[in-house]
Amino acid sequence: MPDTDLLMLQRDHIKTLQARYQASLAEHGYDGLLISSGASPLQYGDDQGWAFQGYGPFLHWTGLAGFEHAWLLIRPGHKPLLSLYQPVDFWHATLELTPEPWHEDIELTYRDHRAAPEVEGVSKLAVIGDPNLLSGLPGTHNPEALCAALDETRVHKTPYEIACLAKANVLAVAGHRAARDAFLAGASEFDINLAYQQATRQREADAPYHSIIGINEHAGTLHYQYYDTATPLKSRSLLIDAGVRYRGYCSDITRTTAGVEEGRFAALVHGLEQLQFRLCDMVAPGVEYVDIHRRTHQGIAALLNAAGLVTGLSDEEMVEEGITRAFFPHGIGHFLGAQVHDVAGKLVPPPADAPFLRLTRTLEPGMVVTIEPGLYFIPSLLEPILGGPLGQHLNRERLEVLQGCGGIRIEDNVVVTEAGNRNLTREAES
């Protein structure tokens, strides 16, 4: 059961959202908003549905990730109306809502059918959610300008949201420790996943995203999606990118562990972690997030130089020639909240030198971001350089050995504060 302070923070959170949403509705000429929680669609040609976790704006208000066919009605001057679908069903269990203080701030109703509640006293209604579930409903569906404005309400987290994100980090850190211990004890990817789930007490379907658990060369596939059931003859490395959803809010943590007798790879892991510490320390109000990304490339160049993986080029030349992009091909991170890749990160497109960057904003207090530098040995990215004129500067022998370790990524969840930052992940580890 959540502690009293958290429950009181949630009541303040609801009041804050009511003010933010009412301002957005007034600005765009609406006097009512109906939000769908969503529902799991059936798989094509089957009667089985996909895993369900709820629509972002609905989670932003309620945190109720598992409630399908629910609706939330927002009207200025009224309590939010939360309508939950609770059919009489002997095939499936019906989710029950545990009484909590925030229910005093809403009007709570139950329906035994999936239709949206009737909306009265609204002259101009907006309805947002999965278009497949909005057919036949009155009002303007998913108006682009309003949806963008509502995304903005999620950029600056309330104290309640930050408390939920902190708890999600605590739970995930326990899972990461169990995963590391299982790896060092000789477990397979499949068994490491089970150890993570056991420690977090979270079903895989309830996790905010499919956990990435890669041993050896699998760690070099950025979104590796399979779990080998057999342990390799020699486990040289583990990369695990996994989180927990708590009251609708996500953690997103990555750790890399070197296997026994992998001294060179372990040194690179240590070097990248030291860089990651410095990058996290850059998080502060007024900092351009893209500057953190660019500083990462400078740090990767210095690490490649120190490790003897690239020689005969300055750090600046490595960045300018695109060598660091072959070792670090993704962006430094993203917003985090009710969605893992939370909304409103790109007010402007990413620059040409960072095409995969998911966040291009100036940092402000209340934002929550991930900082996740990586260093990978991906053949398809390295081979064009090795085969070109710059190949003479790369240590082929060392790279061939390290390719069997796949790669390194280290990721923390960091809050932008008035004075600088708060690292939720390291805080949970201490």
UniProtKB/TrEMBL annotation:
What's a single GO BP term from this record?
proteolysis
Q: Which residues bind Mn(2+) 1?
A: 252, 334, 372, 411
* Domain Xaa-Pro dipeptidase N-terminal residue range list: 11-150
Entry's cofactor comment: Binds 2 manganese ions per subunit.
Which reaction does this enzyme catalyse, per its entry?
Xaa-L-Pro dipeptide + H2O = an L-alpha-amino acid + L-proline
Give the required cofactors: Mn(2+)
Question: Coiled coil where?
Answer: none
GO-annotated cellular components: cytosol
This entry's Enzyme Commission designation comes to: 3.4.13.9
Q: Name one GO molecular function term.
A: aminopeptidase activity
- For this UniProt entry, which residues form the secretion signal? none
Sorted alphabetically, the keyword list is: Dipeptidase, Hydrolase, Manganese, Metal-binding, Metalloprotease, Protease
- Ranges where the Peptidase M24 domain occurs: 164-418
Q: One Pfam family for this entry, by name?
A: PepQ_N
**InterPro entries named among the record's database cross-references:** Creatin/AminoP/Spt16_N (IPR029149), Creatinase/aminopeptidase-like (IPR036005), PepQ_N (IPR048819), Pept_M24 (IPR000994), X-Pro_dipept-like (IPR052433), X_Pro_dipept (IPR022846)
Which of this chain's residues are annotated to bind Mn(2+) 2?
Answer: 241, 252, 411
Give the UniProt family note: Belongs to the peptidase M24B family. Bacterial-type prolidase subfamily.
Reported function: Splits dipeptides with a prolyl residue in the C-terminal position.
Under NCBIfam families, the record lists: PRK13607.1
- Name of this chain's protein: Xaa-Pro dipeptidase
Q: Which organism is it from?
A: Marinobacter litoralis
